[in-house]
Amino acid sequence: MSGIAEKYTSQSIIEGQSGPTNVPQPFGSFPAYQKIIDLYAKVSNHEDTSGELNELVLEALKIPNESHPKSRSCSDTEENVIHLEGEPRTDEVMEFSKFCKNKNLIRTDNLGNVAGHRGYFTKGPLSVLEQALIKLTVSQLQKRGFEIISVPDILFPHVIESCGMATKGDRNQVYFLDNDQDAQESCLSGTAEMAIGGFLQNSVFSVDQLPLKLAAVSRCFRAETSSLEEEGGLYRVHYFTKVEMFGVTASENGNESNELHEDFLRIQKELFQQYNLHYRVLEMPPSELGLSAHRKFDIEAWLPGKKMFGEISSCSNCTDFQSRRLNLRYQSPSGQLKFVHTVNGTACAIPRMLISLVETHQTPAGTVELPSKIEEFMVSPWSELVASNPNIEFNFLRTKAQQDRVTSEYV
Amino acid sequence: MSSVCHIVQLFLKCRGSRVVQRQMGTWALSRLSTVSAGRVQPVLDIEHILKNLELYEDSIEKRKVIPRPEIRNLPKLYEEAVALRDARDRAQQIREEHSLEVAKLIRDRKQDKQTQAETNELKERGKILRDELRSAISNFNKVNDAIIDLVISLPNILDPATLEINKFLRTVDVPEGVKSWSTPPDLEWTVVPGVGPAAEFPRSKASLLELELSGEAQSYLLKNKYTETGNVDFVESSLFDVSGMDPNQFIRIRESNINPIPESHASYLVGGASFPAFLALFAQSLVKNPDEVMPIRYFVIGRSYGKKKYEKNTVYQRSAVQVFIACKNEQEMEQEFENLSNLTGNFLSRHIGTPFVMEQVGAPNLQNYERKQVAFLTEGSSKTISSVSAIGDHVSKRLLCCYAGNSTKQAKFMHLVTGRFLNLTDFIRPLEVPPNPVNNSMSSNAYVA
């Protein structure tokens, strides 16, 4: 019997106790679960035909993770702020896209024909800042006991689904490779969490090896779009670089993953404090947890140019949701094989971090004074990089008439 | 004429494993029409090709392009096209004049029988002229299409230094006093089946080395007056359509819930550390202040993705440092090519401390848009860790990467250089790990049943 089916069809749940899951209805009353209850009953009574056990497993796989009590107590309609750091800038600050375009540090327009929707280029100090953030974050994570790993960006769909992300259906964010006909389907990874999960699949740890903490720098690809004006520019893009934390814990006393989850949050807070950002930490309600998370914190930084809070990081405890699907286990001191718990969190998502840093540390003189911790990792100071960045004046040749006008001597 | 067109169409069907379909129609001589407003109209510069037929033929020969484009037919084809265009224009003019005549007659309102008969005759004549015009347009389009398809598929001319085979240039040792590079013996580099088609996991030291080396490259290039960029990872098929670059070496992508996308709007994953990604920045654009900013020297630290040529189902992913230089003319391009080659060599031998072998890459191993390439190989192995290529204005003309000319309002086309400054993944990968792991099928269902 599947470890998954067993967990979610245990007697107490079947008897219809108030749903422990992210679905806001008692388990017994949710229509899809009735099917699982019926299948479970059949299989338990040895009425199984060959297909029903598999069907039970496949249905059970769709059940979201249980939610943490604190998550369940959160309001769906109001933000649940559990921590506030720093003070917001109240003076006038130029919005990131406008500031960067004025200084020729970014290009986001007129790229649709050649690079697709939401394509972007960064230049000069913005690009150097990206590398500085990566190096700084990796260095900080190493000091905190993380092992650094490089990951592939192209994965098989089952790896992504095992981490709780849908690859099919209307609302998924996944890009598929248009492979040669007889090749196996592959997707682009939305976060290093997926690849690390795949790397660890079918592993058995000894309890001494846990907690295991891994970190990866990867390119993330997401098909999500937004028509909101405030989410234009670099705020929501289809590809970006991210430094991700991934943790694996035992589950002896049931609290190990909660502790690691809190630890990841503490690391995130320490990182962002160094950047002198004004930010808040939110406890997320079940409706925001997705399929895999048991509990999730989001960190939102104040973006003074946009005059809004924007999510710069999140941190989830997935308990045994992913490990049951990836077959990640450990040998307990008693010799039993148990499923591990997994935790993941964003250490640095580059585009939003660029926005928050440039807006937060913008000076009235029109430059950016970065915190010293970041400056240490910049190859040259921001102002020098701005000065050496070629100020290219482009004319985009949009129409056939414009193109013909400048190329007529060749035709 | 028809046999020439037929040969051209046949050539296109045979090239590669997939027929390369030009997505845009044609309207005027050597001019593509656009499917949607705002797309790039390439400059095919047939005049230049006609003046340099021998160079193009030499290029086709040395690159061993199969099937071989019959470029010798181009002059005759072009002559034919010009004649057919003139015939079309004449037919158009006659028809317009005729239409005016008819309109005038009707306006005069002469209603007698004789005038009515004249009117009818003129209308009949109008129909004949209309059919003749359609025929003239069709005849012209056939030949024009053939010319355009032939020209787009032509490779770049070759630099005189490029031979038919790779040529050893020199070995460069690590100078005295410079600490030699040695790959750490205990690098962890895991290939995991069942995760993805190119699933490599460099860990700890191996992963950190990639960051360290990219940092070294970054500092080095910034000190040598290069500007860092962050590039797009996707490009649209229109970039390949007109440039003649082969999209089959890149990975086409789609969103799972989008209906099959027409070829004309297909997206490809190329990675920021690639030549096409840089082209997207300059395509269809005119630099207004070239004297202030050119040559433009950019570099990026990022990924590149692709498919192995001629090998089905093999995708790869690399971390790399890619360089791109936009120059005003050929002379400047040669200078920058030389400078970048020296810079790359110095970085490898004096900065990283690795000896290398330098090779002039043979024509069959070049991309069809490259004029020449020097490759830097690690000594004693066949790993190419760096390369520098000269492109000229071959791609710039087609994608309108241009800059304002001095005193005229006419654009001039950029002469391009590009280079893989350092292939980080291949440089660090231990020798015993094969590059490009073969497409791994899922070995077992990871779900516990």
Automatic annotation (TrEMBL), chain A:
Q: What is this protein called?
A: serine--tRNA ligase
Molecular function GO labels: ATP binding; serine-tRNA ligase activity
- Taxonomic source organism: Allacma fusca
Domain Aminoacyl-transfer RNA synthetases class-II family profile intervals: 129-371
Region Disordered: start-end pairs: 1-25
- InterPro entries assigned to the protein according to its UniProt record, in alphabetical order: aa-tRNA-synt_IIb, aa-tRNA-synth_II, Ser-tRNA-ligase_type_1
The record's EC number reads: 6.1.1.11
State where composition is biased (Polar residues): 8-24
TrEMBL record, chain B:
Q: Which residues form the Serine-tRNA synthetase type1 N-terminal domain?
A: 43-157
Matching InterPro entries: Ser-tRNA-ligase_type_1 (IPR002317), Ser-tRNA-synth_1_N (IPR015866)
Biological process terms in GO annotation? seryl-tRNA aminoacylation
Q: Name the Gene Ontology molecular function terms of this record.
A: ATP binding; serine-tRNA ligase activity
The protein depicted here goes by the name Serine-tRNA synthetase type1 N-terminal domain-containing protein
Which organism does this record belong to? Answer: Allacma fusca
What are the leading ranks of the lineage? Eukaryota, Metazoa, Ecdysozoa, Arthropoda, Hexapoda
